[in-house]
Amino acid sequence: MDYVVLLKQVPDLAEELEIDADGTGLDREWLSFVASEWDEYALEEALLLRDQGHGGTVTCLALGVETGDVDELLATCLARGADRVIKVGSFEAPPDSHTAAAAFADALAHVHYDLILTGVQAIDDLDGQVGPLLATRLDLPHVSVVTHIALAHHHTTVTVHQEYAGGIVAEFEATLPAVLGVQTSRETPRYAPVSRIRQLMKTATIEAMAGGGGAGSGLVIEAMAIPETGSTAEMISGNPQAIAERIAAILSERGIGTAVAR
């Protein structure tokens, strides 16, 4: 079994985010970047499947984007146990999902895979489309929002759980090869010592592959803005009857509904 994991670096939300001079994106000059949380879950699942009886190799792919440090991201994958890492293409800024899927598809023409895993979405776009778009380009089955993965002993099918709202879970079986969008992993992503990452950045082989990327989605961001800060918030205290009456009065003052009759 050969597993491929697609990863992305995203802005660290612990940092203060600022809009760039054009007003159409984030100012990335001083931003810190981290691996997308859902991609880390995808990597952990691939490592668990490999190490818990199915064998094979884990190959990690990430787009070569100038902002951030993709080499460090890939070295971290090696420190966690990946067998091979590949930097795909060269982009000045993170591309949209259509472009990313096209670039990954180009690279995967030269990489053997039985199962492709990626995070269900990333915090900087939340569209969750790289997996479905890639599966479409490769003509493979796809399941997203995956919370459990089980491979058949003959390694020709995979059974997955897909999570819905309200705690509902569906079970699907897909023929391999397939693409999965991982929502969470069975175990917490393993820790990679900083010293090990630094060593691998000096000694490890990070392969490079071309990835054209296609024409993109055609979407254009016209403007971005920091949410306005509200002025005040009213804390309502008292017994349930008093709280309910105050809420009803506020709604009535604002023309929403009618006051509760006593």
What does this structure look like?
The chain is α/β, with parallel strands linked by helices and 262 residues long. The chain folds into 2 domains: 2-209, HUPs (Rossmann fold), CATH 3.40.50; 232-262, no CATH class. 28% of the residues lie in helices and 25% in strands. It contains 6 helices and 11 strands. The protein has helices at 37-54, 70-80, 97-108, 130-138, 194-203, 240-253, and strands at 2-7, 9-11, 33-35, 57-65, 84-91, 115-119, 142-151, 157-163, 169-175, 178-182, 207-209. The strands form 2 sheets. The chain has a 9-stranded mixed sheet with strand order 9-8-7-10-6-1-4-5-11, with helices on both faces. The protein has a two-stranded antiparallel ribbon with strand order 2-3. Helix 2 (70-80) links the parallel strand 4 (57-65) and strand 5 (84-91). The longest helix is centred in the first third of the chain and has 18 residues, at 37-54. The radius of gyration is 23 Å and the shape is globular. It starts with a strand and ends in a 9-residue tail after the last helix.
Short description:
The chain has 262 residues and is of the alpha/beta class. It has helices spanning 37-54, 70-80, 97-108, 130-138, 194-203, 240-253; strands spanning 2-7, 9-11, 33-35, 57-65, 84-91, 115-119, 142-151, 157-163, 169-175, 178-182, 207-209.
Topology (SSEs and partners):
Elements: E1 2-7, E2 9-11, E3 33-35, H1 37-54, E4 57-65, H2 70-80, E5 84-91, H3 97-108, E6 115-119, H4 130-138, E7 142-151, E8 157-163, E9 169-175, E10 178-182, H5 194-203, E11 207-209, H6 240-253
Parallel strand pairs: 1-4, 1-6, 4-5, 5-11, 6-10, 7-10
Antiparallel strand pairs: 2-3, 7-8, 8-9
Helix pairs in contact: 2-5, 3-4
